[in-house]
Amino acid sequence: MVTNEAKITALIYAAGSKGITLTELANHVQISPAACRQLVEKLASQYHQDTKMGLEISVTDETYRLATKGDVAELVNDYVWHGQPQRLSTAAIEIIAIIAYNQPIARVEIDAIRGVNSSATLHRLQELNLVEVVGEKQEIGHPKLYGVSNYGLKYFGLNSPKDLPELPKATPEL
């Protein structure tokens, strides 16, 4: 018989970089959220303490995912990014910042803020799983609405959008 721990681990793995919420886990495993939280915390502790394991269970914005332990992160990054640029362009960082502070936001709104077309860079950010489609605007054409993905938050060292630094207040021009 498959244990609830095995089911939870398999679901977190299957969720990939998108992750899975506690509620989703509990519903799929058919246990209470409290029992599920206990099992996830137990598994996270086991993964963390096991030096033979290169993965850990991380939580970002109340979403669980398997992540690489810090000890092997450089090795994995070298493998994943081999032959690809290591840094994000200024335009990419600009777009992520605009999305982070204004999400959900449509591409045309991003373009209006930046003053240039952002579609190519936005597409690349989606490929890198730093931003994701979070809905669509209820207007003609139903433009996609973008938000920073949980992976994107983690990439920038944030647990949730609430962790973003406050923007400076605009000062009136003289």
Describe it.
This protein has 174 residues and is α+β, with helices and mostly antiparallel strands. Helix content is 48%, strand content 16%. It has a 3-stranded antiparallel β-sheet. Strands 4-6-5 form a 3-stranded antiparallel β-sheet. Strand 5 and strand 6 form a beta hairpin. Helix 1 packs across helix 3 and helix 2 crosses helix 3. The protein is globular, with a radius of gyration of 19 Å. The N and C termini lie far apart (73 Å). The mean pLDDT is 88.
Low-confidence segments: none
> Termini separation (Å)?
73 Å
Order of helices and strands: HEHHEEHHEHHEEH
Radius of gyration: 19 Å
Please state the overall shape, judged from the principal axes of the Cα atoms: globular
Q: Based on DSSP secondary structure assignment, what is the total number of beta strands?
A: 6
Largest sheet properties:
3 strands, antiparallel
Fraction in beta strands? 15-25%
Oligomer designation: single chain
Q: pLDDT average, as an integer? A: 88
Features:
alpha+beta; single chain; 48% helix; 8 helices; three-stranded antiparallel β-sheet; 174 residues; 6 strands
Topology:
Blueprint: H1 4-15, E1 20-21, H2 22-29, H3 33-49, E2 55-60, E3 63-68, H4 70-80, H5 90-102, E4 105-106, H6 107-114, H7 119-127, E5 131-136, E6 144-148, H8 150-155
Antiparallel strand pairs: 1-3, 2-3, 4-6, 5-6
Helix pairs in contact: 1-3, 2-3, 5-7
Concise synopsis of the structure shown:
This protein has about 170 residues and is α+β, with helices and mostly antiparallel strands. The protein has helices at about 5-15, 20-30, 35-50, 70-80, 90-100, 105-115, 120-125, 150-155, and strands spanning about 20, 55-60, 65-70, 105, 130-135, 145-150.
